[in-house]
Amino acid sequence: VQLQASGGGLVQAGGSLRLSCTTSERTFRTYAVAWFRRAPGKEREFVAAIRWSGGHTYYADSVKGRFTISKGSADNTVFLQMNSLKPEDTAVYYCAAHRGVIVSALSSSNAYRSWGQGTLVTVSS
């Protein structure tokens, strides 16, 4: 499945951005969808995930309380609302998706077979 990530940009610390991940399939039903990020000089890290069935959400500790992952009104879009952004949130953000990801694997990049192209988020201090 093809994924399209969008919504990145330049924002000041404390600001907000909303990222979108859209699938070429008609729907994300039966999928888990996640956001990962890679900051300059760092390894890719898990940010947030949602299991479409049931709508359960999961977050990295570093973004809890600031980021919210959610389903769009159309079944083929997932959003990542990012509030209270910090300079350390600067990274390329990637969305990923796969069917049937178990809860214990949601934060593992190896669990996802489909990846978007990434969208750059830059937070200035």
Characteristics:
125 residues, seven-stranded mixed beta sheet, four-stranded antiparallel beta sheet, 11 strands
Short summary:
With 125 residues, the chain is mostly beta strands. Helix content is 0%, strand content 50%.
Structure description:
The mean pLDDT is 95. Strands 2, 4, 5, 6, 9, 10 and 11 form a seven-stranded mixed β-sheet that branches. The chain has a four-stranded antiparallel β-sheet with strand order 1-3-8-7, with no helix packed on it. By secondary structure, the protein is mainly β. The protein has strands at residues 3-6, 9-12, 17-23, 31-38, 44-51, 57-59, 67-71, 77-82, 91-99, 114-115, 119-124. β7 and β8 (77-82) form a beta hairpin.
Largest sheet: number of strands, sense, barrel closure = 7 strands, mixed
Question: Helices and strands: which structural class?
Answer: mainly beta
Q: First CA to last CA: what distance? A: 37 Å
Uncertain residue ranges: none
Report the helical percentage. Answer: under 10%
Described by the principal axes of the CA atoms, the overall outline is globular
Give the mean pLDDT: 95
Q: How many DSSP H or I helices?
A: 0
Order of helices and strands: EEEEEEEEEEE
Strand content: over 45%
Q: State the total count of DSSP E strands.
A: 11
Report Rg: 13 Å
